[in-house]
Amino acid sequence: MADFVHIDPLTMEGSDELPASTPQPTTANPSSGTKDDRSDLAFLDLHPFVRQSVLDKIYGCMIGSALGDTIGLYTEFLPKSACEKIYKEKRFSLVELVTECYADSHRNSFEPCAWTDDTDQALLILLSYLHSHSKPPSSITSPPSPSTPLSNLPQDFASRLQIWITQGLLALNRPPCGIGQLVGSVVSNPSYLSDPTATATTHWRKSHRHVAPNGSLMRTHPIALFCVGFPETAAWRVAADVGRTTHVDPRCVVSCCIVVCLIRGLVRGEITGEEDVDAAIERSYAWVCEQPELMNPGLDPELTRWEIERLLERKEFERHVYAEGLDELELESSREMGYVYKCLGSAVLTLRLGMRMVGVCGVQGKVGEVFERLITDLILQGGDADTNAAVAGALLGSLVGYARLPAHWSDGLAHKEWLMGKILRLTKAVGVVEGQVHEVEDEAANGGKTLMSKSELEDRDRGMLHKILSRDRERKEKEERRRNQGKGIGGWFKK
Fold this sequence. Notes:
The protein has a single domain, classed as ADP-ribosylation/Crystallin J1 (ADP-ribosylglycohydrolase fold, Orthogonal Bundle). The chain is built from 21 helices and no strands. By secondary structure, the protein is mainly α. Helix content is 53%, strand content 0%. Pfam families: ADP_ribosyl_GH (PF03747). Its cofactor is Mg(2+).
């Protein structure tokens, strides 16, 4: 039996209980048709608390990543010195009083208290999975191969991503803010959907096999949850295949495989200490090194062995995944800000620090402080803060669970109710919670809507910007009125 890090939410001092809308776990019916029959979830019945713990960690992973993304926007692309100067209190809130975001053209383009493109793309993967698992059995013509579960996911995700770069997240009518340069150039290629990985490979080769940004890593965490009942090797394969629809560099691939492996292990209760983290990292690295098509995208016969292996050179890899402090990673470096290893290294280090804090705080009843403190420390480093915190938030959320996320963050998260509903459907589709997953219109590639024309897109973007500016103005006026309460003659009589 795997060892589970279990903390009873009902007895933890100062903690939040799972929301009433969170289902109580019941044994899933394997014949219900809502999950792949090859998924082995027998471990859920090894102990009464295991299923509840897994459920808590699934919610923790998804909401934790969205929160990291949202809080990270406060400092994204800022130098560390500016972060410390602007946010002197080193504390953030998404509920009254909402922490005021540093106003610039970048941050003003996003909806207040909402996630960015990082979570949008993760949700494209989630919606693709839910849509494929909610179709009537009669519409499924070719079940996935036992060796490659979720084999249709990469192509369907690619189709959704191409829609997203122009239409946005249609399910929530969100414009596509923050499109990365690599994703935009690869996905907008006219031949992209005919072979996404080949298109991405061609683009990567034109960069002299050098480009390794964090765009695939930021969105990969849902795959770990889809594969919680699958073997580790199957999870690696899905992570690699989905990631390579845009990012084929071996450093990007190994980073995705490591994070998926860690989250899967945390949710299953198989990763409980730093030794387990190290072992998962090394297993993932070794597996990628054994896959010729991952080490040499496009299988170029002219490359020497040294040219193939240099991208996963150990010294560079170890410098990031075994970093002992955030300062070592130089996250604010403008030259390497979006480098995938920086994101991976900061997320793994944050997980390690979280494990150490849980070991201490568990005795003191302050586990609820772990997520907030570590994510805050991370984003105050500046750099690509939202992406770093999105990945770290997925790992930390999988460690501490949903019940240990800070309420003054989660309660104020925009679109939280919608996201919680999707996570509930995920738990049913995976098989952790019993229940059918019926088709829902907004999980289709077009969000259940007619795709917008160019003029409609322009109108939508103008309307969204107007709403954002109006909300910001209303918030400032409300806070100003609150600050002025108690001032003047009337205020003296209230003292």
